[in-house]
Amino acid sequence: MKTGAYLSVVIAFSLIATPALAQRQQQASAATKAAGPAPRRDISGHWLGPVSPRKEPPPPMTALGQQLFDATKPLQGPRAVPIAQTNDPLVTCNPMGFPRSALFETRGFAFEHVPRRTLQLLQYQRIWREIWTDGRPLPTSVGAPGKDARDPRYYGYSVGTWADDYTFVVTTTGFNEDAWVDERGYPRSMDAKIEERYRRIDRDHLELSVTIDDPKIYTKPYFVVKQVYTWAPVQEFEEQLCIPSEALEYRETFRPAGTEK
Amino acid sequence: MRTRIVAFAITMTVVTLTAAPGFAHHSDVAYDQAKRTTLKDAKVISYAWRNPHGIMVLDVKDETGEVVRWTLETGSPSSLMTDGWTKNSVVAGDVITVDANPARNGTKFGRLLRVTKADGTVLTWGERNRASQ
Predict the structure, then answer these.
(1) Which residue from B60, B88, B74 is spatially nearest to B124, judged by alpha carbons?
(2) Residue A2 lies in a domain
(3) For residue A33, what pLDDT band results from cuts at 50, 70 and 90?
């Protein structure tokens, strides 16, 4: 295919299937530029993606996993319920936690490499994550009794290493049990160990793979997603907030629409 | 050539996956997506342009001439802007015609699909995304 024809198809397709990104990002789209090579050991910058990446089905759950899953009433997926019936923590703007922040509302995020750590900045709710790169181990006593124990967290504790010059691997543990894995209501336990692999394909494309190892909940490691993100032509965030008062008003306004006949 | 094909495939994947779920932030199960209700000459009482979804309140005369109040949910500002809306595209006092998926339970609620303004301007929410699915 000649370059001109290729670009025409890309541009035409982009105009038909308008992505859910800010208009400025669309207008500044880099679709007409050929991506250069990936820089070495650098994923910094702003990246754009979908609201909800397509996810792989989970492996069989344990009895506990199934029990927790059955108790969730999500707004999304095959078990979706009307907003009046959901117990999705996000419906009142409770924290998404991790890995949901990597699996839902992924329209914009950024990385910055700074001494001793890499920071991930998430557009939705303006959240940040600290990914330590100074060689420290992950805490081993999260949630245990004793003065040296660390508290369980929504976003856990994260460390990062370079698997090679283009793949940054983040391992996160130490979760509380108040957040869902994703919008479909899959659970995770305090013992979950979650790996993110960010592979910079070229200058403009970053591939994320997420795997959950949580034997209390899943009988095998759960490879959840592989999603490619694109370099943001406009290197800044939208303000994209879940505002509790507005979310409550939304829920109460549309509650009658979801009641039984 | 091979590099171009790979680049093309990556671009298509990214665009497709980015486009499809753009309007699916909250549940649609309350609405009958097989039905399309048209509310003609609806008067906009209020329109809240906000997250997670906008709230549009309309007064419409039914077949007997009685005024009926409808409440529709629209997209979030960011999703509507990708469809060409601005904060002032629809404001209180406007008289518009609206297409919406009505609530399954028969209440006067719905999920907005399309607005036709008095001057003929057409605004949609997620229509292109649904067409591409």
Answers:
(1) B74
(2) no
(3) low
Give per-residue pLDDT as tens, A128-171. Answer: 999 999 999 999 999 999 888 999 999 999 999 999 999 999 99
Contact (CB, 8 A) for A10 and B11: yes
- What is the pLDDT at residue B4? 52
Please name which of A20, A81, A117, A108 lies closest in space to residue A251, comparing C-alpha atoms: A81
The predicted complex's ipTM stands at 0.76
Full-prediction pTM beyond 0.90? no
Instruction: Report H helices in chain B.
Output: 2-19, 77-82, 127-132
Is residue A144, in this structure, part of any structural domain at all? no
Q: What is the pLDDT of residue B8?
A: 43
Best residue in A33, A51, A249 for a mutation probing chain B (most B CBs within 10 Å): A51
Q: Using 50, 70 and 90 to split pLDDT, how confident is the model at A23?
A: low
The separation between the first and the last C-alpha atoms of chain A, rounded to the nearest angstrom, is 56
With CA atoms as reference, the chain A residue closest to B25 would be A51
Q: How many domains does chain A have?
A: 1
Selected residues 104-133 of chain B with any CB under 8 Å from a CB in chain A: 104-107, 109-110, 128-129, 132
CA angle A249, A255, A258 (to 5 degrees): 150
Residue-number span of the structural domain to which A118 is assigned: 7-135+149-253
Determine whether the interchain pair A18/B83 forms a contact, defined as Cβ–Cβ distance below 8 Å: yes
Say if A155 falls within a structural domain: yes
